[in-house]
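FW: tagging you since you asked about this chain on Friday. Here's the raw sequence from the shared folder, copied in full. Didn't touch anything.
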Amino acid sequence: MRVLAASVLAMESLVMGFAILLAMKDHSALALTLGGFLAILLILSAGLLKKKAGWVLGSTLQVALLAYGLVVTAMYLIGAIFAGLWIAAIIVGRKGEAARAAFLASPPPDA
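HL: got it, structure written out here
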C-alpha cells in the first residue's frame, strides 16, 4: 500500500513542477511559490507514509492539488485523476496487504 501511495505522490510532485512552468508567464510570484511548496510537500509526504501523519498529509495535499486549478486550469482535471489514483492506491494496497497476510498465515503446502 505504501509503495503505491508513494509513487502517486512522487508523480504528483513532478506534475506540480510542470504546472509551475505553465504558471510562470501569467501568474504572480506567490502562486509560483505556493506551487513549489506544494511540490516539496508532496515529496516529503511520500517519505512520511510509514506514519499516520504521512497519510493525512497526502490526503490533504490531494485537495491542495485540486485547488491549484485556480492557478493552472488543467490542474482541476489532473488533480481529479491523481485523487482517484490516491484512493485506488489505498484500496488496492489494503487488499494486497490482506492477501499477503492470508498467504503468510496459511500453512506451507506439503511437497
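FW: Residues 2-102 form one domain.
HL: agreed, and The first helix runs from residue 2 to 23.
FW: great, closing this out.
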